[in-house]
Recover the amino acids of this structure.
């Protein structure tokens, strides 16, 4: 991602100036040549003052911790004092050999794939539906965003109460004559992962729908009108015009969904707790990291897990961007150039 | 995420004049499906809110039923408890400080990235864009150690500052296109009238980028209000808990008193919901520009 964006910006910078080295003077401030020299120092000061605070905060609290994680990952370390017990790649070897890690990785991949399969089509269908000129559209939008806006803790607390063996869901099933479907939604290892999928879909599909709606609204109305004049039916218009033009939005949503699924933590940790998750079969890489790292006091190991998780996300993201998002990013670059 | 960088027109699209004749009631099936979907979205929320109006014996006997009779004691108890208001205050302080910090730092650095030319500009933008690849989950352990070493454990600042840092990438990526879209002519006019670049920044850029600022501000506020992982690591002292930690502590402390847990839970989600509903149109408007393919 960063590569595409950086070339974009480099390209933009080069386009705006004749020589790259002269970039500073060729700023829009140049109509005042007499003050150029003093202006240049002043310009530098302005850049420093305006960008400095954000850059410092960002480097100190985002980039630095990520680098630290990579460093700590090479140590056996309990979190007190400076790490001294350098063990090289041992942590990484242990992680890759741990059957429990294989299991959590499988859970994460399961969630990635099913999120795409379940949420994608539903979100597109609903967005098409809600994109029609109907009354109460703005109210509907606010309402479908509700699950996305409330916090994971509340979602977790609410659902875990409802899904208890003697909870509302089973009670409701009993009432409507589907008592046979009653289940131990949270503790049965055959069902728990699917339960988690249901809750994830419920929580995040509103976001997907809103994203798709935003994408749909940027398709020029004239296209639909022209197609309608040419005698295309509603479904033909959706299949031939809407879906292809919605492609970039769908692919961007899928990217966000994949990264989110790989980093899933809050919901699992809140609903299943850090110890039950592994027996119910819903633990993820992130809960494994917290359990084996901070929970067990092995901070070095925990950091190594974080690094593995990051690398897996990065590799998947890069592959995705290389093969799927590539055209979109190029489109983005040209469109962004105003 | 990076792709959100695509294009954000200030203020989103101009609102089309409403041609009321064209808004028909449309297909009843559309409404039916929309209603079913809304019902699925809202049912658990309604369950939480209504559950707070029931007694524990009602909940035990019929887990899925309406309150009968309505019981207001749970909500009153929560509203009278110092714990709830303490956590409410902590959440408010953290969310407001995070929002202000993100907006101030974000607008400043985005302005530089959008309107100045200097060596390393592309690299700086890429650095922030790459930040989207570092979710807090990955960095949480070292972040916790860093905050501990800085002596900010159990202080709200220990949550606020890292949250600002982690919200910067999204903010920069949404705001830069907004600031770029301000026409050059306005800047030239300002400069002819004797305004310096900073004067232009204060008098013109801030007001003109307001829609984008509102969007990132709301996103930052809601994210901070709901944030769980970071407070979980940083705040161990009950008096510093924010509401998400409070909800969890409360629900394990009063695990027998389901009704009160539900009342506590629904009161703690109200502020974010209200805040979001008030500004929802602006967010979708802002994103409409941002996710354009």
């Amino acid at each position: 991602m960063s590569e595409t964006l950086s070339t974009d910006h480099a390209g933009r910078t080069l386009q705006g100036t004749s020589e790259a080295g002269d970039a500073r003077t060729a700023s829009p401030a140049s109509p005042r040549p007499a003050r150029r020299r003093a202006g240049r120092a002043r310009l530098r000061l302005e850049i420093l003052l305006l960008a400095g605070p954000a850059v410092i905060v960002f480097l100190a609290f985002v980039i630095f911790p990520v680098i630290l994680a990579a460093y700590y990952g090479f140590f056996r370390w309990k979190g007190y004092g400076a790490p001294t017990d350098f063990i090289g790649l041992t942590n990484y070897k242990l992680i890759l050999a741990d059957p429990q890690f294989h299991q959590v990785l499988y859970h994460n991949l399961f969630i990635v794939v099913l999120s795409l399969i379940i949420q994608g089509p539903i979100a597109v269908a609903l967005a098409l539906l809600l994109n029609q000129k109907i009354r109460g559209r703005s109210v509907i939008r606010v309402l479908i965003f509700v699950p996305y806006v409330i916090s994971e803790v509340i979602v977790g607390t609410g659902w875990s109460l409802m899904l208890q063996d003697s909870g509302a869901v089973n009670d409701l099933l009993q009432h409507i004559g589907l008592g046979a479907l009653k289940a131990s939604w949270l503790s049965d290892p055959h069902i728990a992962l699917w339960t988690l999928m249901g809750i994830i879909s419920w929580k995040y599909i509103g976001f997907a729908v809103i994203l798709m709606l935003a994408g749909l609204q940027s398709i020029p109305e004239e296209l639909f009108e022209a197609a309608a004049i040419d005698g295309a039916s509603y479904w033909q218009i959706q299949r031939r015009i809407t879906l292809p033009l919605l492609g970039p939005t769908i692919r961007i949503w899928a990217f966000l969904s994949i990264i989110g699924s790989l980093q899933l933590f809050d919901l699992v940790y809140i609903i299943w707790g850090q110890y039950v998750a592994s027996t119910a079969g819903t633990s993820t890489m992130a809960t494994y990291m917290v359990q084996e790292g901070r929970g067990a006091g092995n901070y070095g190991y925990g950091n190594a897990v974080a690094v593995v998780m990051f690398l897996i996300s990065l590799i998947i993201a890069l592959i995705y961007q290389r093969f799927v998002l590539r055209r979109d990013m190029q489109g983005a670059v040209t469109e962004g150039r105003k | 995420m990076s792709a959100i960088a695509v294009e954000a027109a200030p203020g989103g699209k101009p609102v089309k004049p409403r041609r009321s004749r064209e808004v028909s009631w449309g297909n009843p099936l559309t409404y039916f499906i929309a209603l079913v979907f809304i019902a699925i979205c809202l049912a658990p929320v309604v369950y939480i809110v209504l559950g707070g109006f029931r007694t524990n014996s009602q909940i035990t006997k019929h887990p899925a039923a309406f309150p009968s009779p309505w019981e207001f004691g749970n909500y009153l108890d929560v509203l009278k408890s110092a714990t709830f208001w303490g956590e409410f205050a902590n959440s408010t302080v953290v969310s407001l400080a995070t929002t202000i910090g993100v907006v101030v730092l974000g607008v400043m650095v985005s302005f530089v990235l959008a309107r100045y030319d200097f060596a390393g500009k592309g690299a700086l933008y890429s650095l922030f864009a790459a930040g989207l690849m570092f979710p807090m989950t990955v960095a949480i352990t070292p972040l916790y150690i860093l905050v501990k070493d800085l002596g900010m454990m159990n202080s709200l600042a220990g949550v606020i500052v890292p949250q600002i840092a982690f919200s910067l990438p999204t903010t920069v990526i949404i705001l830069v296109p907004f600031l770029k879209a301000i026409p050059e002519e306005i800047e030239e006019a300002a400069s002819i009238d004797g305004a310096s670049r900073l004067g232009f920044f204060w008098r013109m850029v801030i007001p003109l980028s307001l829609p984008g600022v509102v969007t990132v501000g709301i996103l930052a506020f809601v994210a901070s209000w709901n944030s769980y992982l970071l407070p979980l690591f940083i705040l161990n002292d009950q008096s510093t808990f924010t509401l998400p930690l409070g909800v969890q502590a409360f629900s394990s402390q009063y695990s027998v008193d389901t009704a009160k847990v539900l009342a506590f839970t629904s009161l703690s989600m109200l502020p974010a919901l209200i805040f979001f509903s008030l500004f929802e149109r602006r967010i979708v408007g802002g994103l409409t520009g941002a996710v354009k393919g």
Remarks:
- Residues 86-241+279-290 of chain B form a domain with the MetI-like fold fold (CATH 1.10.3720.10).
- Chain B touches chain A through 121 residues (CB under 8 Å).
- The two ends of chain B are 13 Å apart (CA to CA).
- The longest helix of chain B spans residues 82-115.
